[in-house]
Amino acid sequence: MCIRDRSWAAWDEGYDPADRLDQAILATRRAVFPLRGLLP
Fold first, then answer.
1. Model pTM?
2. Which of 3, 5, 37, 32 is nearest to 19 (CA)?
3. Residue (of 40, 2, 34, 5) closest to 18 by Cα position
C-alpha cells in the first residue's frame, strides 16, 4: 500500500498510471467530468 502526502497537488504532478487508486480516479473523472462540462 502506498502512503501519500496529504497536501494538495495538481493531478498531472502526482498521477501514477500503475497505481490502482489513480486508475480508479481517472476512470471516474473521464466518466463524470464531461457530463458536468469540466475538463477530464
1. 0.57
2. 3
3. 2
